[in-house]
Amino acid sequence: MKERIGVIGGGPAGIIAAGIAGSKDKSVTLIEKNERLGKKLFITGKGRCNITNASPIEDFFDNVITNRNFMYSSFYSFTNKDILNLLEKYGLKTKVERGNRVFPLSDKSSDVIKALEKFLSTHNVDVMLNTKVLDINYANNKFIVITSENKMYFDKILIATGGKSYPSTGSTGDGYKFAEKFGHEIKTLRPSLVPIEINEEWTRILQGLSLKNVTLTAFVRDRKVHEEFGEMVFTHYGISGPIVLSMSNHLHQYTNKKIKLFVDLKPALSIEKLDDRLLRDFQIYNNRQIKNGLNDLLLQKLIPVIINLARIDSEKPINQITREERGNLVNIIKGLPMTFKNFRSIEEAIITSGGISAKEINPSTMESKLQQRLFFAGEIIDVDALTGGYNLQIAYSTGYLAGMNM
């Protein structure tokens, strides 16, 4: 009689684990509370699915923020090339974009999920959708999984229910409750890769404005603690976008201190070159008011905010702007100042930081050190990384090891 394997959670970690276990001639049941598999996968990469990153696998460790050493066996056992080869085998073509981000050639996350479903079907995985797990017990060397419909018995079990971010996709933290029942410590859950709330009211004026090729720098007590270059967007509460989400991962340790953020709107220009550029523009628009003389340099929506922060009357003619006022403009453009207020809630975060203590899981097998034949994979573990496909690779790689060792 085949060994019975139960996988709870139909995200990327659960899918890979279930398919791999099925390929080893196990009887595998994948239980998913949603009406379809990969619901969170479906919305990643703005609906395009940033599958993984094409950088060398050794570079992945620099992008893991929490417990990177835990990932050595996982990353090297199932690499970014391995997941792409698997997806290609089941019909998915991919492409590499800026930052080595890998996307489906079709730009449709649904095509990634279709390939993964074929993978499961090929290995005879029994998929149960719309099935919520209410409880897990252990007796007589069997795991008893109690769902809204019935009881099921398994020889081994994997919990891959994700974190608490994006609860609309089913990530409501169920797995933490199950893990605690078996004695596992849950490290404090925090939002990771999350937008930032700002104290300054003027950010609301800029709501919806996107900035490209800017530098965002964080200071704590006049010491630079992190810097990001790329795209960001202003919101009604503060700031978001790729560089803000990445920045958030580096600021958790400083939230009990005053954090100042500065946006360099023209990082390609030194202060001297920006001042020269302003002088040239001022000569061209010499008789205009300052509010009408910066259109060649700045986005229209930014101009009144910049002028106000530089303490210049917006009606003042350019030919009356003093050297000091011009210097104020340069300083604001090179360092638009903001004060950190808070992170947005964990429900708005891309990833959950925290979770099941990595010290209580065997990094070579993903098996619990506290309960034999109980495994974990994916976001439920206290491991998280920066944007760029790294978090999904964590899910595939840990799922693979769990599948192999179940």
UniProtKB/TrEMBL annotation:
Transmembrane segments: none annotated. Residues 5-404 form the RsdA/BaiN/AoA(So)-like Rossmann fold-like domain. Residues 190-351 form the RsdA/BaiN/AoA(So)-like insert domain. This is NAD(P)/FAD-dependent oxidoreductase. It comes from Tissierella simiarum. The lineage of its organism: Bacteria, Bacillati, Bacillota, Tissierellia, Tissierellales.
